[in-house]
Amino acid sequence: MSVPSIETKIAEAIKARVATLPMVEQYTIVWTDGPLPAGQNTYTPSPAQRYLRCTWTPNQTQRQFIGSKDPHRRPSMLQIDVMGLKTQASPVAREVAGQVALHFPADLRMAFQGIETRVTKAPSALAPFIDTHIQVPVVIELEAYA
Question: Beta 73-84 vs 134-145: how paired, if at all?
């Protein structure tokens, strides 16, 4: 078995933290890069089901040190979209978004197999908008040195 890449280790550290969100009993976690949840809580897009849509987006790696074996800065962003029901008022989804933001405080460190990623500042819970759900994006800025 091969050793996971740095990117995989960062992603696994983030996914482990997301899995501990306090509202996971009420909101299915759906990662945009798959796989979709299986079992009783199988996700099927439905306006009657609330969920958290999670997207991790790595940014361009930055070399900040001279040595070729020195760590590189690996910035990224985690966006968790709270997808609330239209039958509830937007303040409900906004409150859930606030709880998501609280779960990722500034300087929180998440580690997986020797690689650590850190929340660089307090997350931003953005304005809600309504489509099939009431959607409230939460943006979490991260960085790792590896």
Answer: antiparallel
Domains of the chain: 6-37+46-145 (3.30.2000.20)
Q: What pTM does this model have?
A: 0.90
* CA 54 centroid distance within chain: 5
78-119 confidence digits (pLDDT tens): 999 999 999 998 999 999 999 999 999 999 999 999 999 999
Bridge partners, 8 (sequence order): none
For residue 141 the two structure tokens come to 């800025």
Calpha distance 61→88 (Å, rounded): 41
Question: CB neighbours of 116 closer than 8 A, spacing ≥ 6?
Answer: 13, 109, 110, 144
